[in-house]
Amino acid sequence: MHRALLALHGLLARLLPPAFRSEFGEELASSVSTRVRSARGSARSAVALLELLDLLRTALREWQRVVASAVGKVWDGTGLDFRMACRSLLRGWKTSGIAIATIAIAIGASTAVYSVLDGVVLRPLDYPDADRIVRVAIGARPESGTTEGPFSPRGYWTARCWGGRSRWVRRPTR
Amino acid sequence: MSENEPVSDHVFHVLLSLLDGPRHGYGIIQAVEARTGGAFTLGSGTLYSAIKRMEARGWIERVQGPPGEDPRRKYYGLTAAGRGVTVTEARRLTKLAGYARDLLLPELGA
User: Fold this and answer.
1) In Å, how far is A71's CA from the nearest CA of chain B?
2) Which residues, other chains included, contact A83 with Cβ-Cβ below 8 Å and sequence gap of 6+?
3) Are the beta carbons of B44 and A54 closer than 8 angstroms?
């Protein structure tokens, strides 16, 4: 039984982080083997089992340390970059101010232009199946039988503003 | 596990085991078991994990084994810093035990 547990220990030692395994793997295996063999009778299996559980616990703890160290290094690097950026911004505050103001004006102008474009061109008309509309016209009441009148950009804007709310707006024909 | 923080039980046991001279890994395990009468056992994985951290902190170092010993067996010895940590921790524990003794004198029956 203890031989099988020792073999399993050797197999599961691969779960240890590579750096730990290359530094202590041989010593660890030798220590476990000597300890198990120096135990008497049935105690050998108990010692081998305890060593196996200890190995699993050690592997988990060592990997936690490896991950924590890697995360710590990344965070330290990011924090350092952030601190350096803040310092250089404060050192040349005039240049930084001009750069920040330029970015702010550019963002404001882009937002304004896009808002107008969206309101006039991009946003669909407030009618059912607005994406199917191919012609918009202004005319008299449908029952009067008169023809459609001229349609100016202003008229388009009015039609857009009315949307489907006005009773004077004829619903699109399908 | 800085020099001002309390050290864990197994690290303290390893430090105590090296007070009277360098030992190899299995020798440390044996020393701990002998000192505590088997009440405290150290797994090999836990031992080498502790050795790795203690070595990184400069508390222990690899030393030459006795002549005629298997060269593959690595011996570990206490550094001056390691001895300092052991003394500091022993003082801290003694003080702590003193507080407990003063408060629990009747129950301890000392």
Assistant:
1) 19
2) none
3) yes
pLDDT tens-digit map of A40-65? 888 888 888 889 999 999 999 999 98
Q: CB contact, 8 Å: B49 with chain A?
A: yes
| Residue segments in chain A with a per-residue pLDDT below the cut of 70 | 137-151, 159-174
Confirm or reject contact between B44 and chain A (CB < 8 A).
yes
- Give the minimum alpha-carbon distance from B2 to chain A in angstroms, rounded to a whole number: 16
- Is-contact A144 A101, C-beta < 8 A? no
In the numeric block, which tokens belong to residue B104? Answer: 């629990």
Counting residues of chain B whose pLDDT is more than 90, the rounded percentage is 68
pLDDT of residue B82: 94
CB count within 10 Å of CB A70 equals 10
Query: What kind and span of H or E run contains A34?
Result: helix A18-38
Q: Among candidates B82, B32, B73, B29, which has minimal Cα distance to B55?
A: B82
Q: Alpha-carbon distance A25 to A16, whole Å?
A: 9
